Amino acid sequence: MRLRRNAADVGTDHGYLPAFLAINGLAEKIYASDVAEGPLENAKKTFEKLNVSDKINLIKSDGLENIPDDADEIFILGMGGFLISEILFDSKFIRNSSVHLILQPMTRSEDVRKFLWDNLFEIDRECCVEDGGRVYAVISAYYTGKKEYHSSFSYYVGEKMDFSGLIPSPEIKYAVKQTKIAKARIEGMKLEKDGNCREIEENIKKFENMYPAVKENLK
Ligand SMILES: C[S@@+](CC[C@H](N)C(=O)[O-])C[C@H]1O[C@@H](n2cnc3c(N)ncnc32)[C@H](O)[C@@H]1O
User: Fold this and answer.
1) Exposed end of the chain (fewer CB within 10 Å): N or C?
2) What are the φ/ψ torsions at residue 86 (nearest 5 degrees)?
3) Cα–Cα distance between 114 and 50 in angstroms, integer?
4) pLDDT-derived band of residue 60, with 50, 70 and 90 as boundaries?
5) Residue 124 resides in a domain
6) Does the pLDDT of residue 132 top 90, yes or no?
7) Domain that holds residue 145
């Protein structure tokens, strides 16, 4: 994240991230939001317990609806990829190159990449985190207003992760998981006689040849 910006944690639940930002003085302003009362109550308790209530603005908001438009470091973490895409779709102020998005989909990260690229955002960095034996992508993105070509297999694994490790790193585990998902979708596409499956198939082959550790772990 960029330091000393105006951070917003959308879907904060227990408010752990905003509390961490406040305790460590990492942001200028901090907004913590959630759509539901229970999580807002959880976050309030966390902030009181950690003595940071005066440093965080707690907001009830469906997605980015009520987030002030001076927020420029926006976290949307721990939700499904489709919901994250819907939240981004509904907001205008994030379509600005000064706004930084940090997104961590629990599922369907391919939907998030497709949304970002189709809507003229650039993904500048990606990495993976591992929690409880599961791996998740963390996607950093900015609006550029420019359209660029990306292969349909890039939706699944992105273009910025490092898959070059030999030991099953979180990135390699993620690549294996996503390649399996892409292969399963290809089978569905074949049944529907969708000709686009050939392009994805060819790109998967290239990807496996480029990263032997991924190929090895797919067996
Ligand atoms: C699984 S929790 C994730 C909490 C935290 N962000 C994390 O990563 O640990 C998802 C949270 O998103 C909230 N949420 C779901 N839909 C939302 C929406 N449209 N706008 C804001 N928050 C939403 C839920 O109420 C819940 O508190």
Assistant:
1) C
2) -65, -45
3) 38
4) very high
5) yes
6) yes
7) 6-162
